[in-house]
Amino acid sequence: MIKRIAFNTDESAAEWYNKRFSDFGVFETTKKYNSLMLEWLEVKEKTEKKLLDVGCGGGFFLKQAEKFLKCFGVDFSLEALIQAKKNCNADLILASASSLPFKDRSFDFVSCLGSLEHFIEMEKALNEMQRVLKNKGKANFYVPNSNFILFKLNKATYFQPNERLASLNEWRKLLEKFFVVEKDFKHTHNSLGRLIPKNLTYSFSFICSKK
Fold this sequence. Notes:
Layout (H helix, E strand, L loop, with lengths): L1 E3 L5 H15 L6 H10 L9 E5 L5 H6 L4 E6 L2 H10 L3 E4 L12 E7 L8 H11 E12 L4 H6 L8 E3 L2 H8 L3 E9 L15 E8 L1
Parallel strand pairs: 2-3, 2-5, 3-4, 5-6
Antiparallel strand pairs: 1-7, 6-9, 8-9
C-alpha cells in the first residue's frame, strides 16, 4: 500500500477540504458513474430502503440514489455539505466517518465512493460502516488501484493531502477484516477500460455484506 499522509486529525483535514471546496468547488461525479455504483449494489427500483453515503462530498451520487432510496449523507467538511444541499434532497449530517451518529443496523445500503483512502482512521471508519449496515445489507467501496500506471507516476488522485493506494488483494484483505466481500469490479473513466486487466485498472468497486 502506498501512503501519503499530511494530516493526523479530522479537524485539520476538514479545514483543508473546506478551503479547497470553497475556492474550487467539490469533486463532481458523472451520472453514468453514479448509476453504475447503484447498479453494482443491485438497486433497480424505487423502495423505502435507506442508503448512507459516507464521505458524500457534493452529493452527486446522492442525487441519483434518491430516485430509488431514502438517502443520508455524511461528510466532515461543512463546505461540502453546503454545496451538496444545492445538488440533492438527502438528509445531510456533519460528522466523521470514524464516529457515525446512527444506531446499529440502520441502513440497507452503505456507500463510500472515492473517500475511504483519504480517511484518517480507515479501520475505525470501516468498523463504523459495518456497524450501521443491516444484517442483510450491502456496501459499495470504491477505491484506487496502486498498480494503475498513472498512479505509479504521480501517486496521487486529485492531489489530496491524505491518500492511500493499494492493490486488489491489499484492499480485499483490509475489507475482509470487517465485511464479506461478495464481488469486485474494475473501473476506468474511458471506453478502453474493458481492455485493461483488472489488476491494472484505475479503481475497484467492492460489493460487501455484513459478517
